[in-house]
Write a structure and sequence with these properties.
With about 450 residues, the chain is α/β, with parallel strands linked by helices. It contains 15 helices and 7 strands.
Amino acid sequence: MIKKPYNTPSLFSSLSDMLNQSHPLYKLADKIDWAKFDTAFKPLYCQNNGRPSKPIRLMCGLLILKHLRNLSDESVVEQWSENAYYQYFCGMQEFIPGAPCASSELVHFRNRIGEKGIELIFQESIRVNNEDDDDEHHDTAFIDSTVQEKNITYPTDAKLHKKIVRKALNIVHKLELPLRQSYTFVLKRIYRDQRFRNHPKNRQKAVRADRKLRTIAGRLVRELKRNLGEHSVYKELIERFEAILAQRCHSRQKIYSIHEPEVQCISKGKEHKKYEFGNKVSIIRSATGLILGAQSFRNEYDGHTIEASLAQVERLTRRKIKILAGDRGYRGKKEVNGTQILIPDVPKPSDSRYQKRKKHKLFCKRAGIEPTIGHLKSDHRLGRNFYKGVAGDAVNILLAAAAYNFKRAMKALLHLLKIISEKLSERPSMNDFSLANAF
C-alpha cells in the first residue's frame, strides 16, 4: 500500500490545508500576534476617503519577509506570487498567482508607520522568542556598535564635482534656461585626463584636471543661481552644491553625497577598511542570543550611546538589564541608570581566582555579539542601507534586528520538531515518521 505524503486537496480546501504545517515559516505565522499591528496601524488610514488599502498583515508580512530572506522590494513582491508559504505568512487563505501590490507601496507603508511602527514589529520579534526563554535571561546582556553603510559610492572630490556638473546641466535643459557655455568638449577632455591618476606620469595631469573641473562646476552653479533667482525650488540643492565646492580636505561637517547629505565618515580602526560612510548603530544582545535593542545614531562616541540603547530595551521589554558588558570602546562609563557597565580590564588585586575566571568567561561570551553583527550585515540587509535619509537609517537597523529574531524563533521551532521526530521514531509504530518532506 502506497501512502501519500500530503493530503490531496479538495475543491473546498484552503491554503493552510495544502501546506506542510511543520514548516518553520508556517509555525512562525501562527505565533506572531498580527492583531497588534492592525490595532496600531488602523488609525493611520482614512476610513471614508480614497482607494481601499492593502491588508495591514500583508504589508507587515512583506516587510518581515524582505529582511528575513535578504530581498529587495521588487524581489519580495515577485517571489510572493510564486511561494505559497509566503502567502500564508501574509494571511492569504487561497493561492494568488498575481503580485500582491506594487513594490513602491512598501515604500509608502514604511513612511506611513514610521520608526515607531517598525519598532512595534521589532518588539513583537522579541516577544515571540521570550515565550520559551528563561525569565532572568535579561539580567546580563552585551553591547557593541558597528557602522551601517549607506548605498553611496566611495566619495571623492572629483566624483562630487562631476555629479554637480551633470545635475546643473540637467536642470538647465529641463527648465530651458540660458547658458553661456555647456563645456561639452572641455569636460570630455577633463574626464580623459582624470583617468589612470595612480600612474606616476599621469598624476600632475589628473590634479590639474581636478582643479579645472572644480572651476567649471562653480561657474555653472553660479550661473544657475542667477537665472533661477532667490525663490526657487532648487534653492536647497544649490546651497548644497556651494557647500561641496567650498569644502576642502580638512573641513568639518563635510558632505559626502549629494542625495544623502547626512552620511557620516566613520573610522572604526579596521585594517582592511579604514573609513566607512554611513551611520553608527548600537546592538544589545542577551546572553541567550536574542537582540534586545537596536538603535541608530550618527557618529557619537560609543559610551554616549549606552543610555539611549538601555532606554529602548526597557521600553520594549519592560525589564531592566543589570549587567551590560562591552568592549574597551565603552570605557569611561561604570554605571548608567542602575545598570552596571563592565569592560575588559586588568584584574584587581583584591579579585579572587573565582572572580577572575568569572569575568574572563563573561568577556569570552561577549565576543558572541560579533558573529551576530556579521549575520545582520550578510543575511538581513544591514551591510548596505538602501533606505533614504535619517529615518531610513533607523528603519533599516530595526527591521534587520527583527528579522534576526524571527529567524532565531524559526530555528528554535525546527529544533523542537527534530526532537519530537526523534522521540516518535523510537516507537515501533512510528518508524516511518520523518521530517524529510517538511523542506
